[in-house]
């Protein structure tokens, strides 16, 4: 997390903590609460604006790269911490149970439960990406030889063919055929005579679980507050719901997950809201990438996977036409591709495990926050229940 962002968050949380512990008049309290809500909106907008602008510069992290996904998870955790401070910190539990919060807050908590499944699915998907990395590493080790002989090329071709085949997946076809408890990237193990080499490229989720259905369920009743509600606590709850859905949608778009058919359509956000505009910009960019890759049936938009797939196909073509001794010019081209593939493997080796740890952190943070909100709702229920 950038130092300025961390400092801004610290000062914001400290400011709310001090204010909530002060004894203030009702008018002053309302004015300061409005100011806190406006500041929270600004922080959310700024965070996603930075994420969006970083994808437009050559020096920034590429959209949907491992490093970029880690950034969006960082920003999510910051938003979540500030959200709890705005809605919960030092607040009378009875305020949380009043309309419209008595409706929109349970809806947010329901989205949180659904997002936990998404976190699990994405974590398993990243395990499968690690298996792709291992196949690429086998190919790199085989082709990084001088002189390059038939044996090394055959070994590389076997690994690369498995890699390229594993990267292909038709979500619509899979949805039509139904799901299995264990899903491979591209093929049903039972129908594949070479299923042994694909076995490690699979994940386990509940039989009928669908990433697309999960995201659509999170979006189904997501609506911006109107009228007087738009200036109250319903607004940050809507904002946090939107941030949660966007982050989960992004993870599912980037990482191989079970049944993603139909996720290319992004959910609507009100364009008139300043904080939502950079989020809309990110949605549109990701949806555009999705449309480009959807027809090819690619398993995920993770930037490193896309580059790995392209290089893998090029090197398979080289292996198919290889004759010893190969032309020097062709070998120079292959060497560049092998070096690039090696760099991608290195990035994966350095980034995938921290990314998984971050997703686990998001998972546990969401569990804790949901528990905190449920406790407050329980307290509010007890306060409103007349003594016998």
Automatic annotation (TrEMBL):
Main location: membrane
Topology of this chain in the membrane: Single-pass membrane protein
GO CC terms, sorted: membrane
Location relative to the cell: Membrane
Pfam entry (one): ROH1-like
Organism domain of life: Eukaryota
Keywords: Membrane, Transmembrane, Transmembrane helix
Family: Belongs to the ROH1 family.
UniProt name for this protein: R3H domain-containing protein
Organism: Glycine max (Soybean)
Lineage of the organism: Eukaryota, Viridiplantae, Streptophyta, Embryophyta, Tracheophyta
């Amino acid at each position: 997390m950038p130092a300025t962002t961390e400092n801004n968050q610290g000062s914001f949380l400290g400011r709310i903590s001090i204010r909530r512990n002060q004894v203030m008049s009702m008018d002053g309290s309302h004015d300061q609460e409005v100011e806190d809500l406006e500041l929270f909106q600004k922080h959310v907008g700024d965070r996603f604006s930075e994420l969006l602008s970083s994808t437009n510069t050559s020096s920034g992290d590429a959209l949907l790269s491992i490093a970029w996904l880690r950034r969006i998870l960082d920003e999510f955790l910051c938003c979540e911490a500030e959200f709890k401070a705005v809605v919960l910190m030092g607040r009378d539990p009875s305020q949380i149970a009043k309309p419209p919060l008595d409706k929109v807050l349970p809806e947010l908590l329901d989205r949180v439960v659904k997002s936990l499944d998404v976190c699990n699915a994405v974590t398993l998907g990243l395990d499968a990406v690690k298996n792709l990395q291992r196949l690429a590493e086998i190919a790199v080790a085989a082709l990084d030889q001088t002189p390059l002989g038939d044996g090394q090329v055959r070994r590389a071709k076997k690994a690369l063919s498995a890699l390229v085949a594993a990267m292909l997946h038709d979500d619509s076809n899979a949805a039509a055929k139904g799901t299995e408890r264990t899903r491979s990237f591209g093929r049903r193990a039972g129908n594949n005579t070479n299923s042994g080499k694909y076995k490690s490229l699979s994940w386990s989720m509940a039989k009928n679980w669908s990433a697309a259905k999960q995201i659509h369920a999170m979006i189904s009743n997501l609506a911006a507050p109107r009228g007087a509600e738009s200036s109250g606590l319903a607004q940050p709850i809507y904002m946090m719901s939107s941030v949660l859905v966007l982050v989960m949608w992004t993870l599912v778009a980037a990482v191989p997950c079970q049944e993603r058919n139909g996720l290319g359509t992004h959910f609507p956000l009100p364009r008139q809201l300043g904080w939502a505009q950079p989020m809309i910009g990110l949605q549109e960019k990701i949806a555009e990438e999705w449309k480009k890759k959807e027809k090819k049936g690619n398993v995920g938009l993770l930037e490193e996977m896309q580059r790995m797939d392209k290089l893998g196909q090029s090197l398979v073509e080289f292996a198919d036409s290889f004759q010893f001794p190969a032309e020097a010019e062709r070998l120079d081209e292959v060497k560049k591709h092998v070096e690039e593939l090696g760099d991608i493997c290195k990035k994966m080796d350095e980034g995938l495990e921290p990314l998984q740890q971050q997703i686990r952190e998001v998972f546990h943070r969401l569990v804790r926050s949901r528990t905190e909100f449920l406790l407050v709702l329980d307290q509010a229920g007890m306060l409103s229940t007349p003594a016998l």
